[in-house]
Design a protein that fits this description.
mainly alpha, 15 helices, 5 strands, about 45% helix
């Protein structure tokens, strides 16, 4: 069983953050200065092109399921339950294997199998109340130019309060530490981000993306590609096929601006689609911190991928951190032997059929 560390995690300046603030523009270790966000700075980065579509998605789910998020996401999980589900996901995705003990002591008594990590880089599960996102995937290790991805270490930090957990009052504002949604979160963070990052280390462009004319790993195009694909994968095992979470992320910054940056008014507007006020307040807090541009990338990227799903080589897309429009540039040099694929992509024909269903439900041809 993977043992979580219940301590709150301070921000690590050597980490790649894939699910919260836009990361710094350097390839590796860098600390950044936090800027004060003003209404003027937020206004300049908001996208409105998908507003009607996002609201249609939210209204569609509202009409079929109502605004009670508990009906969709399920009951909140304790940290013990989270850890058990994490272990089960790792085993299901071949990150754990059975191994016979070999010590003399064990040979003298009855031999039983045990579970051990296949990878030294299997992400360590930790909990924190300090992150604004549902979960954050971090990595530390050698700079890319050294091309030693196997020496990197990984962490998955999940937003959860150990104090509330001990009192039986589980984290209420994280909709992805719920019975119906935690596997979806793992498909997002590990099945997409982690596996693509591991596979990236096998590719010839890992240490020199410019040589292959690929977008910078921390560019907005890469953010859309990474979070758009992850947003789609989040839906695969949910009770509904609607892109509800990317849509409510998308509209939050727009509502915040239209309300003249009034937090209370914005929360009330979001409350039409979501009964969890704590969750709505957290989304608005992200908008107030100037993260709207980042948060809108989830829906923008997902729509772009679904619109082009019929021509995308999804196996190639999982081979590294590349966008679907970059696959032809590296098609002849992409290494597919030894890459890791999540369980939900083992049947690519079934996976494509599922994408067709998701596209139709979300008003995409």
């Amino acid at each position: 069983m993977i043992k979580p560390d219940n301590k709150n995690i301070k921000q690590n300046v050597n980490s790649i953050k894939l699910d919260e603030e836009p990361p710094p523009k350097t390839e590796d270790s860098t600390s950044t200065t936090t800027k004060t966000t003003t209404p003027e700075s937020i206004e300049g980065v908001i996208d409105f092109t998908l507003l009607n579509q996002a609201e249609n998605i939210l209204n569609c789910l509202l009409n079929t399921h109502g605004s009670n998020t508990d009906l969709i996401f399920g009951k909140a999980l304790s940290q013990e339950e989270i850890t058990k589900k994490y272990h089960n996901w790792a085993e299901r995705n071949n990150l754990l294997k059975k191994e016979l003990p070999v010590t003399r002591k064990n040979q003298e008594r009855s031999i039983s199998t045990r579970k051990t990590s296949v990878l030294s880089c299997l992400p360590e599960l930790q909990f924190s109340t300090e992150i604004l996102c549902s979960a954050k995937f971090l990595t530390n290790g050698p700079q890319r130019k050294n091309n030693k991805p196997e020496n990197r270490s990984y962490k998955l930090i999940v937003r959860s309060d150990p104090d509330n957990d001990e009192n039986g009052s589980f984290s209420n504002d994280n909709l992805f530490v719920r019975e119906n949604s935690f596997d979806a979160l793992l498909d997002h963070e590990l099945g997409t981000h982690f596996f693509r990052m591991l596979n990236e280390g096998l590719q010839p462009w890992y240490s020199d993306r410019k040589k292959f004319n690929l977008s910078e790993s921390r560019s907005y195009d890469m953010l859309k590609a990474e979070e758009g694909l992850a947003a789609i994968h989040t839906v695969l095992k949910m009770p509904t096929n609607h892109l509800w979470f990317p849509s409510i992320l998308y509209v939050t910054g727009i509502y915040y601006k239209s309300s003249n940056f009034d937090t209370f008014d914005t929360v009330n507007k979001l409350g039409k689609f979501c009964s969890n006020k704590e969750f709505c307040y957290r989304l608005v807090k992200r908008a107030a911190k100037g993260l709207t541009n980042h948060d809108q990338a989830y829906l923008i990227g997902a729509v772009e991928i679904l619109e082009n799903r019929r021509t995308i080589d999804f196996e190639g897309l999982m081979c590294g951190r590349v966008g679907f429009d970059e696959l032809d540039r590296v098609k002849r040099v992409t290494r597919k032997f030894g890459i890791r694929m999540p369980d939900f992509m083992k049947d690519l024909r079934g996976y494509r059929k599922k994408l067709d269903v998701i596209a139709k439900v979300n008003f995409i041809d």
